[in-house]
Design brief:
This protein is of the alpha/beta class and about 300 residues long. It contains twelve helices and ten strands. It folds into two domains: about 130 residues, Rossmann fold, CATH 3.40.50; about 120 residues, Rossmann fold (3-Layer(aba) Sandwich), CATH 3.40.50.
């Protein structure tokens, strides 16, 4: 046998060994249909969005997190982790320097080019893409399975689902008031049907005033809001550290709006209603109490 054929056979055997080794690992499919093979539980995790940081900590895996994005402020201990940029503007170099054996990303914000670069560097990337509250809970199951804590994830997800079901049951059959959710002050912005916040309004037994708007975060004038006569106004914002009590008082000073006339103008922490994290269920519970104070919520 000549040296060329011998070399070819050696390469074939090496490829077979690599292929066989891959088969021994667990195969996972992410939200984009991509296959991911892990031969052991990940011990060094980088999360590419604040919501993903929250999920990993919720699963009790905070000690495995070696890198997070800017604004990963919850839980507080996540703030001390190395930063890899914002979830839109990530530093590939910083991520690689942390030597992760798993990166968890999101289709809603992380650029595909970043995922491709990390894969070329030999780093496994699992992408999630929850679009509503129920899918957030399923994402918790998926990440738990991926990280070797499937049973714990199932228990936690079941508890969250039970809380959601309770809200839906409590508001079933009640009138569904028209809700205006303000997510920004200047310009005045709200949300359409294809957002987490609108899904929460629906689950909480309300109707989103801007459901039919063509873009996710439409701008409305004060005159438009007044004309649509919302029965409930929820004030939130994407701006961190803002003072919104003044905004609430401004709405309350407009008695021509049904919500102001009845005093039904409320403040809500934006992190609870626009982050696809476990705390979104807490946001749902708060919204339900504001939208349906007449329901028997107990203690």
């Amino acid at each position: 046998m000549g040296p060329t054929r011998t070399r070819a056979r050696l390469f074939a055997m090496l490829a077979l060994c690599v292929w066989a080794g891959m088969l021994q690992g667990a195969v996972y499919t992410d939200a984009l249909g991509r296959k991911l093979i892990l031969d052991q539980e990940p011990g060094r995790i980088v999360t590419l969005a604040p919501s993903l940081t929250e999920i990993v900590y919720f699963l009790g895996l905070g000690d495995r997190v070696v890198g997070v994005t800017q604004f990963s402020s919850y839980p507080p201990e996540a703030q001390s982790k190395p930063k890899v940029g914002s979830y839109v503007n990530l530093s590939v170099e910083q991520i690689i320097s942390l030597a992760p054996d798993l990166v968890i990303g999101t289709a809603d914000g992380n650029r595909p080019a970043i995922v491709e670069l990390l894969e070329k560097a030999g780093i496994p990337v699992f992408v999630v893409n929850p679009r509503n509250t129920r899918e957030v809970i399923q994402t918790i199951r998926d990440i738990g399975h991926l990280c070797g804590v499937a049973e714990k994830a199932q228990v936690l997800a079941r508890e969250l689902s039970t809380r959601v079901d309770r809200i839906v049951a409590k508001t079933s059959g009640l009138d569904r008031p028209l809700v205006f959710l303000q997510v920004n002050t200047r310009p005045l912005m709200t949300v359409n049907a294809d957002t987490f916040s609108s899904d929460l309004i629906r689950l909480a037994g309300g109707r989103n005033l801007a459901d039919q708007e063509p873009i996710h975060y439409p701008r409305l004038s004060i005159e438009e809001v007044i004309g649509r006569e919302p029965q409930v106004i929820i004030v939130s914002s994407m701006e961190r550290g803002g003072e919104f009590e003044e905004v609430r008082q401004q709405w309350l000073s407009m008695p021509m709006i049904p919500a102001a006339k009845t005093g039904r103008v409320y403040l809500v922490d934006s992190d609870l209603i626009d982050r696809p994290s476990p705390r979104i269920v807490e946001g749902l519970e708060l919204l339900a109490r504001d939208i349906h104070p007449e329901a028997d919520w107990g203690h």
